[in-house]
Design goal:
Distance between the termini: 25 Å
Structural class: alpha+beta
Largest sheet: 8 strands, antiparallel, barrel
Radius of gyration: 22 Å
Strand content: 25-35%
Order of helices and strands: EHEEEEEEHEHEEHEEHEEH
Shape: globular
Number of strands: 14
Number of helices: 6
Length: 314
C-alpha cells in the first residue's frame, strides 16, 4: 500500500483557529486521537571475523554476512490510548456511515490485508470473576471495548526518491495485533525496544484524505514502556471493561520546545496483487493537491525532505 503525504507546522497560538477551519472544510467534528508509539529496532546479524595471517602482520577484517548487507527498518508498535468516552462521538459518526479511521483509495490487498489480525502468544482462558471483581460480565473478544485497546504493528518504508510527484510517497503496512503477548511477539521477531513517544491531537476525514493535527509528546517517566504491554499473566484483566482498568499516564511534555503542532494530510492508495495502479496514484495526488489548494493561505503544506522520514537502521 502506498501513502501520499503533505505536512505543515502550526503555531500553538493558531491551533484552535486552524482546527476550526479544518472542521468546516471536512464538515465533521474533530475526533480526538491519542497513540503511544513504541519504536523497536531489529537485531543485526552477527558478522564473521576473518584473520588472515601473512608475514609479520595480522589483519582483523569484519565482513558482514549476506543478511546484514540489506537495509533494516525500525518498526512501530502503536497502542491506542483513546478512552471510551472520547470514542462516543466517533461511534455515532460510524453509525451514520462515517468512520474515524483511515480511508483507503482502491481495492483490498491480496494475501494479508489491512485489518487482518496477527496474534502473538495465544491467550489463556479467562478465569471466572471473583467476588472482588466487577459483577459486569467481561466483554466478548470481538466487541468494540476490547478492540479499543489493541496494538498495531506499523512498517514505514523510506520515501521514494526524486521529485516525481509534488508530495511525499512511501510504502506502508499496518498489521493489528488484537490478542496475545505483544512483547513476546516482538521479541520472537528479534526486535528490541529503543524509545517511546506519544502522538496526541485530532483526526478528520475529507473524501479519501485523512487529516491529522497533533503534537509529539515525550514522557518524563523513566519506567520501561514495554512493561505496559499485554502479557499472558495479565490477559485475564485485559478482558475487563475499560472503565475498570487503571490506566495511569506519566507526565508528558511536547517534544518541540516551541510547542508547535503538526498538520499532516495523508491519502492511502491500495495495491492490487502487490502492485499499485498508476491511475490510482494519479487520482490520489490530484485529490491531495486539491485540498492543499483549498488550505492555501491557512497553512503552507509541502513535501518534507526524504531523509526526515528515513526509517532505516544506520
Amino acid at each position: 500500500m502506498h501513502e501520499l503525504l503533505l505536512h505543515a507546522s502550526v503555531p500553538a497560538g493558531r491551533h484552535a483557529q486552524v482546527l476550526s477551519i479544518l472542521a468546516g472544510i471536512a464538515a465533521m467534528q474533530p475526533q480526538p486521537f491519542h497513540e503511544k508509539h513504541m519504536i523497536y529496532k531489529p537485531t543485526r546479524p552477527v558478522t564473521r571475523v576473518v584473520k588472515p595471517v601473512g608475514g609479520s602482520q595480522t589483519l582483523q577484517l569484519s565482513i558482514p554476512t549476506q543478511a546484514a548487507q540489506g537495509d533494516l527498518f525500525y518498526l512501530h508498535l502503536v497502542e491506542d490510548l483513546v478512552t471510551e468516552g472520547m470514542r462516543e462521538g466517533g461511534d455515532r459518526d460510524d453509525e451514520e456511515g462515517k468512520t474515524d479511521g483511515d480511508v483507503v483509495m482502491g481495492e483490498a490487498v491480496d494475501g494479508v490485508n489491512e485489518g487482518e489480525e496477527v496474534s502473538g502468544v495465544p491467550e489463556p482462558s479467562t478465569p471466572p470473576p471473583s467476588n472482588h471483581q466487577s459483577t459486569k460480565p467481561p466483554s466478548p473478544p470481538n466487541s468494540s471495548s476490547s478492540s479499543s485497546s489493541k496494538y498495531t504493528l506499523q512498517y514505514r518504508d523510506i520515501p521514494d526518491p526524486g521529485h516525481l510527484r509534488p508530495c511525499t510517497t512511501r510504502q506502508i503496512f499496518d498489521v493489528p495485533i488484537t490478542r496475545g503477548d505483544a512483547a513476546a511477539f516482538m521479541s520472537a521477531m528479534e526486535y528490541t525496544h529503543t524509545s517511546t513517544h506519544t502522538l496526541r491531537g485530532h483526526r478528520l476525514t475529507h473524501a479519501s484524505t485523512s487529516i491529522l493535527l497533533f503534537q509529539t509528546l515525550r514522557s518524563l517517566s523513566l519506567s520501561d514502556p514495554s512493561s505496559s504491554l499485554p502479557s499472558s499473566s495479565s490477559s485475564s484483566s485485559s478482558s475487563l471493561p475499560p472503565n475498570t482498568q487503571p490506566q495511569p499516564q506519566p507526565q508528558q511534555q511536547p517534544l518541540d520546545p516551541t510547542n508547535q503542532h503538526i498538520l499532516q494530510l495523508s491519502l492511502r492508495v491500495a495495491t492490487d496483487r502487490n502492485t499499485t495502479k498508476p491511475e490510482l496514484l494519479a487520482r490520489g495526488v490530484k485529490e491531495l493537491m486539491a485540498l492543499k489548494e483549498t488550505l492555501r493561505g491557512v497553512v503552507e503544506l509541502e513535501a518534507v525532505e526524504r531523509g526526515v522520514l528515513d526509517t532505516r537502521v544506520k
